[in-house]
């Protein structure tokens, strides 16, 4: 019994130890299995990361390959564009070369034809020369007749040219004279009154006609009742201005000649200047053909005229600036007046017109004299000009009142 129990205990202990050994072994295998599982997981993670790295590397390689393809495409496109440019340049060069060669060939053909034609004409000329020698007397006679005819034709052409130039210079063509009906039309258009002395200020554009009219009336541009004045083509229509100091006179501002709107050679007839009682012909710089034409037309129509050179103040300043030693005011005035007289006399003679007095006037001096009865440094002929107009009215204008003619212009 005791032995039985002892064996049972040993067997139990042996079984327990075996079970413990198996349990320890199982635990060890479990731990190894866990380690193996963790290792597998680590390997799976490494494999996944490697796979991700491989994918990223593949994507980078694909992107680089794409960029490489795009760069290659751009390079090929640039190469193609450059090739097209070179081809175009080459084509243009070939075209131009072909044109030059074609032109050269055409010139050669023309030259060859000209040579053949020249030789043909030379042969014909030699033939005609031979024939001409046989008929020398007849040809000499014909040549003389042709020479006489040519001289006659040249003479007629020269006469026609001179006649045309003369017509242009006179303004009123020789075969055209204003009729009574035309005079009535212009008098009505301008509102001319028979109980007024109608004085027109005329000349080329830019010579200071409107400014002169204002100064004679004691006004400046911009004053109430003043005529518009400026450097451009200011006056567009004939307009009358009553002389407030001398109400018997109407001054008329006339558009300037030699502009796109007003032709010089037809100026006198187009503006109907033959209807005015007195004409004041104005110039400021050179004495032009238009000035002479206006004087000649006034004389033909029996209209009294006054010749005026404006901008005396500028002329005197220039005379003083251009002289050495410096001129005095009196010397400058005398020089300007003398040079103006000589210039006018020379040009009137050249145009076949009679000599005529010329007045050199200053706008500022004229206004100062008219308004303040005071002489100015620039004054030359202002007083004489106004006095001579009064004298003209006294001698030629009928119906002027004694009180008006006795009054001064200033």
UniProtKB/TrEMBL annotation:
GO terms for cellular component: membrane. Residues 1-115 are annotated as: Disordered. Coiled coil: none annotated. Gene3D superfamilies: P-loop containing nucleotide triphosphate hydrolases. Pfam families: IIGP. Signal peptide: none annotated. Residues 195-387 form the IRG-type G domain. One of its GO terms (molecular function) is GTP binding. Residues 7-115 have a biased composition (Basic and acidic residues). Belongs to the TRAFAC class dynamin-like GTPase superfamily. IRG family. This is IRG-type G domain-containing protein. It comes from Panaeolus cyanescens. The lineage of its organism: Eukaryota, Fungi, Dikarya, Basidiomycota, Agaricomycotina.
């Amino acid at each position: 019994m005791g032995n039985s129990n002892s064996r049972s205990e040993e067997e139990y202990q042996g079984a327990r130890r075996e079970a413990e050994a198996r349990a320890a072994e199982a635990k060890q295998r479990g731990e190894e299995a866990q380690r193996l599982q963790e290792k597998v997981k680590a390997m799976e993670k490494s494999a996944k990361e490697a796979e991700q790295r491989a994918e990223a590397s593949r994507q980078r390689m694909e992107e680089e390959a794409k960029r490489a393809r795009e760069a290659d495409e751009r390079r090929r496109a640039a190469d193609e564009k450059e090739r097209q440019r070179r081809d175009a340049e080459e084509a243009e060069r070939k075209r131009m070369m072909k044109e030059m060669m074609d032109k050269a060939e055409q010139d050669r053909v023309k030259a060859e034809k000209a040579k053949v034609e020249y030789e043909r004409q030379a042969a014909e000329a030699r033939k005609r020369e031979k024939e001409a020698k046989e008929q020398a007397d007849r040809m000499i006679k014909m040549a003389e007749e042709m020479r006489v005819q040519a001289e006659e034709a040249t003479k007629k052409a020269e006469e026609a040219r001179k006649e045309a130039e003369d017509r242009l210079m006179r303004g009123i063509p020789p075969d055209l004279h204003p009729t009574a009906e035309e005079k009535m039309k212009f008098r009505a258009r301008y509102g001319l009154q028979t109980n007024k002395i109608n004085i027109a200020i005329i000349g080329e554009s830019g010579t200071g006609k409107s400014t002169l009219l204002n100064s004679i009336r004691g006004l400046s541009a911009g004053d109430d009742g003043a005529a518009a004045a400026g450097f451009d083509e200011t006056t567009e229509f004939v307009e009358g201005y009553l002389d407030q100091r001398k109400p018997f006179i109407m001054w008329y501002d006339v558009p300037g000649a030699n502009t796109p709107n007003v032709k010089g050679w037809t100026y006198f007839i187009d503006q109907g200047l033959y209807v005015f009682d007195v004409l004041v012909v104005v110039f400021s710089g050179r004495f032009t053909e238009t000035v002479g034409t206006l004087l000649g037309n006034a004389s033909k129509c029996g209209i009294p005229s006054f010749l005026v050179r404006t901008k005396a103040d500028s002329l005197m300043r220039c005379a003083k600036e251009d002289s050495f030693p410096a001129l005095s005011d009196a010397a400058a005035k005398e020089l300007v007046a003398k040079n103006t007289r000589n210039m006018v006399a020379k040009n009137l003679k050249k145009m076949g017109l009679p000599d005529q007095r010329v007045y050199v006037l200053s706008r500022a001096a004229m206004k100062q004299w008219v308004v303040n009865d005071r002489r100015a440094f620039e004054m030359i002929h202002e007083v004489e000009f106004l006095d001579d107009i009064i004298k003209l009215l006294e001698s030629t204008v009928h119906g002027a009142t004694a009180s008006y003619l006795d009054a001064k212009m200033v």
